[in-house]
Amino acid sequence: FSEDELRDFDRRVKDRLGITEDVEYVCEPKLDGLAVSLHYENGALTTAATRGDGYSGEDITANIRTIPSVPLKLRGDDVPDLVEVRGEVYMPKDGFEQLNRRLAERGEKTFVNPRNAAAGSLRQKKSTVTARRPLEMCAYSVAVTDESLLPDTQWEGLKRVQSWGFRINPEMRKARGAEECLEAYSELMDKRDGLPYEIDGIVFRVNRLDQQKALGFVSRAPRWAIAQKFPAQEELTVIEDVEFQVGRTGAVTPVARLKPVFVGGVTVSNATLHNMDEIRRLDVHIGDTV
DNA sequence: GGAAGAAGCGCTTTCGAGGC
DNA sequence: GCCTCGAAAGCGCTTCTTCC
């Protein structure tokens, strides 16, 4: 969330790698969509799944095949026998607006935001419905069983994926060190409103794959990548009531019932009050504007 | 047959406990 | 003090079940 957190991340990367020189990163917009994983055997798309919990996701093969920017057959003579390409499926802003216009004309329910429209479209039972939704996919990583078949940087790896027929993000760029990453963040934030798709931040990945490997993972999160989010949007509303709800483990949590307010593409009507110390510090009450 | 509610999924944020 | 991890909760969507 903050510049200092990004600098801390860069420092941890250098500490773990045992180097003092600046690390090269690949910076690209964090698309607001759903993460998907596509498997290809001998160049042909075999299965597609959502990210799920990191181990298993939903099978969306039939629906993913309807997205024009997903190649069903990889082109080129350097395609490994087994390839996994990961990317983001999203709905561009203009496609979202056209879809909602069509739905409204037919008197049907419209979507609240492009991310949810994309998620809903991919989970359709009938792939013919998905085929009519303006979805696109952008690749951001690739994995193969024999790593010698890929270039030794994230950047070149994505260029290779592009040559096979995938889209990669045109805003992608390289940056050396935390300060250049922060410059890339500022530039992207300036461009944000003019982009044809929604983004909620920027992702920085260590460019060299040998360094990525050396850094490894913690739990499901890589130590060689981080996302910096754009500042949260804020709106004022009123606390109408406070209720107590019992969680799955029996934990009782107070929840504020708010006058619904539309912010950041969603309507917020409840807010957890589990952080009681902060609530006491702010000294808020039912009826207050917060 | 249609409406309403529940369940499950995806993405996200925040906190507290435990380990180093 | 920092890092890691799991729990809990929020919103929106689709699908399935139940009820009228």
Write structural notes for this entry.
The protein has 290 residues and is of the alpha+beta class. It has 2 domains: 226 residues, D-amino Acid Aminotransferase, Chain A, domain 1; 44 residues, Nucleic acid-binding proteins (OB fold (Dihydrolipoamide Acetyltransferase, E2P)). It has 9 helices and 13 strands. Strands 6-1-7-10 form a 4-stranded antiparallel beta sheet. A 4-stranded antiparallel beta sheet has the order 3-2-4-5. A 3-stranded antiparallel beta sheet has the order 11-12-13, with no helix packed on it. Strand 8 and strand 9 form a beta hairpin. The protein binds a DNA duplex (20 and 20 nucleotides) through helix 4 and strand 13.
Summarize the structure.
Helix content is 29%, strand content 31%.
